[in-house]
């Protein structure tokens, strides 16, 4: 079975297939930022990408599938975690990466548009959940390592700690309370680390 007949994002295609996918996803991101989810159109995406409409319709079929593949590609392109040797350092590295992403002139508006789309389309919502599951799991080992070093209690929920780091930054992005500063990222990381040390994220029933 070749990559064209498989679900989008299930493989990392090469050659012309990769170029077509990259062009279409770039065009879809541009259109999503400019027009919003409700006005996305496969024919317009094909025009922007300079790709035949037949190719776009055959491979993706619907707008939600394109958006889901866009999120899959964003997850593939995300930078790996940084290990500093301490939980506060690792969480600050995570927070600063999130801050840089959300402050980017393209990525910030794109995330806002995708989150807005997820509120009205179940397939996009599921794709967004998968995207964040991948990113949270990428950084969860830094919390598990902190448990092993004795920095935080046994039974700490690594995923909840990582989510707690980025949540304040997304709040600032979505409410428009001001530009995201590095100090905001550090504050979010330090708060999550302090809460983890205090046992806030220990799972109930954990021994």
UniProtKB/TrEMBL annotation:
<feature type="DNA-binding region" description="H-T-H motif">
    <location>
        <begin position="41"/>
        <end position="60"/>
    </location>
</feature>
<keyword id="KW-0805">Transcription regulation</keyword>
<dbReference type="InterPro" id="IPR001647">
    <property type="entry name" value="HTH_TetR"/>
</dbReference>
<dbReference type="Pfam" id="PF16859">
    <property type="entry name" value="TetR_C_11"/>
</dbReference>
<dbReference type="Pfam" id="PF00440">
    <property type="entry name" value="TetR_N"/>
</dbReference>
<feature type="domain" description="HTH tetR-type">
    <location>
        <begin position="18"/>
        <end position="78"/>
    </location>
</feature>
<protein>
    <submittedName>
        <fullName>Transcriptional regulator, TetR family</fullName>
    </submittedName>
</protein>
<keyword id="KW-0238">DNA-binding</keyword>
<dbReference type="GO" id="GO:0000976">
    <property type="term" value="F:transcription cis-regulatory region binding"/>
</dbReference>
<keyword id="KW-0804">Transcription</keyword>
<dbReference type="InterPro" id="IPR050109">
    <property type="entry name" value="HTH-type_TetR-like_transc_reg"/>
</dbReference>
<dbReference type="InterPro" id="IPR009057">
    <property type="entry name" value="Homeodomain-like_sf"/>
</dbReference>
<dbReference type="InterPro" id="IPR036271">
    <property type="entry name" value="Tet_transcr_reg_TetR-rel_C_sf"/>
</dbReference>
<dbReference type="InterPro" id="IPR011075">
    <property type="entry name" value="TetR_C"/>
</dbReference>
<dbReference type="GO" id="GO:0003700">
    <property type="term" value="F:DNA-binding transcription factor activity"/>
</dbReference>
